[in-house]
Write a structure and sequence with these properties.
26% of the residues lie in helices and 35% in strands. By secondary structure, the protein is α+β, with helices and mostly antiparallel strands. The strands form three sheets. Strands 2, 4, 5, 9, 10 and 11 form a six-stranded mixed β-sheet that branches. Strands 1-3-8 form a three-stranded antiparallel β-sheet, with no helix packed on it. The relative contact order is 0.19.
Length: 227
């Protein structure tokens, strides 16, 4: 009976302490990839603006949520096959820092644009803007860098510190390359300088013509009076 009680307590302690409990991770990596959808800009559409909004959604595999086998490290896009921009990063969660004027202590606050990449939500939506887009055709491709976590089969699952022997491998996913175009006609019309010199030249010409007309009219009047 004493051994039974001690054994039961040991099992309870193991379940309560993650360092003693057996690993619940799979013995092989979960190579499932998140799906990526570009909502805007729309494919092959022509936009009349220099600054253009984008909206994308990332859907994590169900196994990541259920078994905690994968997590996202960063999300970004590649513009025109060259410019690579990171728009969300787990290592740089956009935390703002400030100093409290009363206590003079450093205060960390969450940036309004902060996105929890590894919340329990299966779908992540990211919105932002491309700025100063040049006129012509552009391409965009969304990429996701993630990590798969597993516990190798040749590592014991029930010894102290098993969590330290977990193995992580990178998982990368990319969307299809999507094309769109920019005309910038509105921006060019607004930026086009007003033809000031032409207006001045026309005004001077009109004024000169009026002045000559007035002089001729006065001369005629004087001639009429003298006669």
């Amino acid at each position: 009976m004493l051994l039974t009680v001690v054994g039961a307590q040991a099992i309870a302690m193991a379940l309560a302490n993650p360092d003693l409990a057996p690993s619940t991770l799979p013995e092989t990596p979960d190579m499932s990839k998140p799906s990526i959808r570009i909502l805007t800009p729309e494919p092959n559409k022509v936009y009349d603006a220099k600054t253009l909004s984008y909206s994308i959604t990332i859907e994590k595999p169900a196994s990541w949520i259920e078994n905690h086998t994968g997590y996202i490290r960063s999300i970004g896009y590649t513009l025109d096959g060259e410019k690579k921009i990171t728009i969300a990063d787990i290592d740089n969660p956009s935390i703002s820092m400030s100093v409290n004027e009363t206590t003079h202590q450093l205060v960390f606050t969450q940036n309004p644009d902060y996105v929890d990449l590894n919340s329990e939500n299966q779908t992540i939506t990211l919105v932002g803007k491309f700025s100063e887009l040049s006129k012509g055709k552009h391409t965009i491709q969304i990429w996701v860098n993630a990590t798969s976590v597993y516990h190798p089969a040749d590592t014991p699952h029930n010894f102290y510190g098993w969590w330290a022997t977990n193995t992580e491998i990178p998982v990368e996913a990319s969307s299809n390359v999507m094309s769109f175009s920019v005309t910038n006609q509105v921006a060019e019309i607004e930026a086009e300088p007003f033809p000031t010199l032409l207006t001045i030249a026309v005004s001077v010409t009109v004024a000169a013509a009026v002045a000559v007309g007035v002089l001729v009219y006065r001369k005629k009047q004087k001639r009429g009076v003298s006669t």
